[in-house]
Structure to design on (682 residues):
């Protein structure tokens, strides 16, 4: 066996947990810019939705204001602070958060936990498509409250749609820069946004401190049950909008680190609560104000701002709305990466634009969400229609997360009583929010539910197909086939395909190979070569690892190469393999591969290469159950659209062979054909 540098060190590195992102001013700015965008813009529309659902400004009284604001405050406190910040952030998988990271920790607890994991992840991804559209459209519509801007834009909604689409396109284009760079740009803006929320709200609270009674949870409960609550339990659907970004906060943990969320959340929450209290104080001061009746879609957030400050506030809120979209986009990258690792989604090309492994970019996800946001904007056009679809799917995710957290607390952390109290309380609470949001279904909620169902079907199809494949997986010991490979490379009855025949394999067991690879070499017309190479790529938790290990099985013609590459390293397998071959040729482990023809005066000692990409396929004659056939067919249909390993591993300019091998070796028996002669047929 030969090896380069310290392969054992690389293996140890790849097994270590991702290092915790340290707390720092810079990291806290990134956190404010990346994590809190969604929940940070909720004051722009929560009170507006509460007001519209209870009859408008003429129905405002102290009972409504204190009760509604109390419900909002305690919704944020219970769901965001208690469930997500205090409990969920402790459940990380190598520093990564989100529902799939949580499932990867608890999946050994029960097989059926895959159901809430897929359901919750699908709903969150579906809501993530809607978030950029609804927040940006709401902010652009807010620009029309400035007379000078209204004179230019007018009331034509098409202008809002065009501006929104332009901003959405720019937002998704800049994702390639990485969340670290985006966070550094957005962080100062969001910091100023939260200060603006807190100060603007505090000014009204100081003028009407009676609104502080809203901190009493009894006020909220009494109003929820009061006959003066015209919306009934459905008011919780509007209150829930104040905490829709909580799940994204958990998903983004891998981008910024748990400690930085702990350090910044108190500041964020204080500013949010002050804004809600300030809007409540403004409503108390303007209850029954007939001058406000003429304002369509009255929004207390903008109306409470002084006339001189309002233009600045609207522009700032527009910037914050754009940043809000970032929280769900970055969260989606993490979610899909986790899902791929769990074999719930196809493997896709991943880039790591920053020095931190948690900060990643997946082009395929970016393009799909980009297209989805454009469809949402064109389909709904106005924020009022989009808000009707907003929040319903995320309640499903929260319930699923609660179920998984129960197993985490009970099975992993071995807490005895508290997990049962936790699951009963939060499932009941989130169940109320879910049923209160069901009224949104026919007003736009159907879109996110259908989108979630589509994503769920992809996951189920991929999961079921992979399960069938795993049952058929067959690893064979390489050493048992060394003699055949030796005879084949010397068998001149077959034309030599190339000097070096290369296969990529996901199998990490050095002494074994997938049956499909050996089937390709021997049975799909024997492939004669001077040397056979079997490559495996392992990504380490260090950013710049460049190491490899080689097993030659005591031969000079079979080589099992494992590349240990840092997550920041571009996986140009072709270039790295040439370096390995050069090292082995120089050490004498690989005999010279002479050539009589070359554009160079002196041909080098390394011959030609061909890469063989082996794909499993399901033959019509395969003896397989109809359900398994459907599962495999759906998985392979999804695989065709997920991208090509040829691009992922930098083989675009290499000589590549594509081969398909049957997934099942057992075929159905067919009826025996009887031979007849032409005279008989006539």
């Amino acid at each position: 066996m030969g090896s380069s540098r310290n392969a054992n060190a690389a293996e140890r590195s790849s097994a270590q947990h991702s290092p915790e992102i340290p707390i720092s001013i810079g990291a806290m700015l990134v956190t404010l810019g990346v994590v809190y965008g969604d929940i940070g813009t909720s004051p722009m529309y929560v009170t507006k939705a509460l007001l519209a659902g209870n009859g408008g400004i003429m129905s405002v009284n102290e009972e409504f204001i204190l009760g509604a604001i109390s419900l909002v405050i305690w919704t944020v406190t219970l769901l965001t602070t208690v469930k997500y910040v205090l409990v969920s952030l402790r459940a990380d998988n190598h520093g990564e958060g989100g529902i799939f990271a949580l499932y990867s920790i608890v999946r050994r607890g029960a097989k059926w936990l895959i159901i809430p994991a897929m359901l919750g992840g699908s709903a969150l991804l579906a809501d993530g498509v809607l978030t950029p559209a609804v927040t940006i459209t709401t902010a652009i519509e807010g620009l029309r409250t400035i007379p000078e801007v209204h004179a230019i834009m007018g009331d034509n909604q098409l202008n809002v749609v065009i501006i929104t689409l332009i901003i959405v396109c720019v937002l998704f284009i800049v994702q390639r820069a990485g969340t670290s760079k985006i966070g550094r740009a957005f962080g100062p803006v969001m910091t100023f946004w939260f200060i603006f929320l807190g100060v603007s709200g505090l000014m009204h609270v100081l003028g009407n401190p009676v609104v502080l009674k809203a901190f009493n949870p009894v006020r909220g409960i009494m109003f929820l049950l009061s006959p003066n609550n015209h919306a009934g339990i459905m008011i919780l659907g509007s209150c829930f909008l104040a905490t829709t970004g909580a799940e994204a906060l958990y998903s983004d943990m891998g981008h910024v680190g748990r400690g930085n969320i702990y350090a910044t959340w108190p500041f964020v929450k204080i500013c949010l609560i002050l804004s809600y209290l300030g809007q409540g104080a403004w409503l108390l001061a303007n209850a029954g104000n007939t001058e406000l009746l003429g304002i369509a879609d009255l929004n207390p957030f903008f109306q409470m701002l002084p006339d001189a400050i309002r233009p600045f506030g609207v522009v700032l809120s527009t910037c914050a709305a754009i940043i809000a979209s970032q929280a769900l986009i970055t969260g989606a990258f993490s979610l899909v990466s986790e899902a791929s690792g769990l074999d719930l989604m196809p493997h896709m090309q991943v880039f790591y634009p920053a020095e931190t492994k948690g900060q990643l970019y997946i082009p395929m996800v970016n393009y799909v969400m980009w297209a989805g946001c454009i469809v949402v904007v064109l389909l709904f056009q106005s924020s009022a229609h989009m808000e009707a679809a907003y929040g319903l799917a995320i309640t499903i995710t929260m319930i699923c997360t609660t179920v998984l957290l129960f197993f985490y607390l009970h099975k992993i952390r071995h807490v005895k009583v508290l997990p049962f109290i936790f699951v009963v309380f939060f499932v009941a609470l989130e169940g109320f929010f879910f049923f209160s949001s069901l009224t949104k279904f026919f007003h736009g909620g159907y879109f996110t539910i259908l989108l979630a169902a589509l994503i769920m079907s992809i996951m189920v199809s991929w999961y079921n197909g992979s399960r069938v494949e795993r049952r058929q997986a067959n690893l064979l010991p390489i050493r048992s086939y060394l003699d055949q490979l030796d005879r084949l490379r010397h068998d001149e009855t077959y034309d030599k395909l190339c000097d070096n025949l290369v296969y990529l394999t996901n199998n990490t067991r050095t002494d074994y190979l997938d049956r499909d690879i050996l089937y390709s070499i021997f049975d799909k017309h024997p492939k004669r070569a001077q040397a056979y190479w079997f490559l495996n790529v392992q990504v380490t938790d260090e950013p710049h690892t460049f190491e490899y290990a080689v097993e030659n099985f005591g031969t000079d013609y079979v080589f099992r190469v494992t590349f240990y590459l840092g997550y920041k390293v571009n996986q140009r397998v072709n270039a790295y393999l040439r370096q390995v071959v050069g090292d082995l040729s120089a050490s004498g482990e690989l005999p010279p591969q002479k050539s009589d023809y070359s554009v160079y005066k002196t041909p080098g000692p390394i011959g030609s290469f061909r890469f063989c990409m082996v794909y499993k396929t399901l033959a019509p004659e395969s003896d397989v159950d109809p359900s398994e056939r459907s599962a495999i067919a759906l998985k392979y249909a999804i695989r065709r659209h997920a991208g090509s390993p040829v691009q992922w591993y930098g083989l675009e300019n290499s000589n590549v062979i594509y081969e398909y091998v049957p997934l099942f070796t057992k075929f159905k028996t067919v009826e025996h054909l009887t031979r007849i002669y032409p005279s008989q047929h006539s």
